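Entry 12.
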Amino acid sequence: MIKLIYGIFNLLYRIHRIFFDDNCNISEGDYLIFLNRFYKIIFFVSTLSLLGCKNNYSYSDINYSRIELTGKKSKMISDVISIYKDSIDVSLDNVIGFSDRLYTKGDFSSKKFNSTLGNLIADIIFIQSDSVFKIQENKNIDFVIQNHGGIRASLPEGEVKLSDAYKILPFENEIVIIEMYGEYISEIVSFLKNETTPHPFSGLIINGNEVLVQNKLIKPSKKYYIAINDYLLTGGDNMFFFNKNIKVYRLGYSLRDAFIDYTKSNLYLSSKIDNRFIINE
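Predicted 3D structure (tokens):
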């Protein structure tokens, strides 16, 4: 995000130099018209990003149109912009790993209430956030809870590109660790059981009425460290029970960066539906 902001300001500076070069006779009015259009684009994209961060909204229904540059100096401006566009396109096409098959969040059943992609995402978040939490606080997390709606696309078979990470996890949600007493975990479990779609988790096992954290029974008076995202921290997807935390640890690490880092380190991604969430009817 910092690199993107820097790139935008650098781009504006270079365009400014084009317009106000000593040898350029472009009017200030034309320059201001261009800036007005440019800032409208930046405002529009920024607004979508902020809404996505807070509400997990989808961009799939938005219609996009190209704004063509016309008039004096349009060729020079286009050349400057193309440098950044080409760089972004090449970066997003970078292969960061491989997937042995297609993984989706919709391949769960009414009995085995977990999905291949949901399990993969939750397990990756557990591994990556636990490593960071250990370095920052010398503590280990106990389990991970993420929201079903935060996963927006499937993971294709074959090459995994950087663009896939942005499609699967498009929101700028960061991982946060909450410290919570075990007595409140029953509320989490009850919520998960009553949902119509499975929210991904890792480190937790729900088998009917049996609930285990790290393969051990829950102790009501024990403090547990749970990795969630900042959207859920504010009650997103009706998970208001997370406000009963004792303390919040912010890692400064996004869900998407965790996915990218893990994929680059391990190269080959694999997952399956397992027995972490069994519904006994």
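Annotation: Residues 18-28, 57-66, 83-87 have pLDDT under 50 and may be disordered. Residues 145 and 236 are 12 Å apart (CA to CA).
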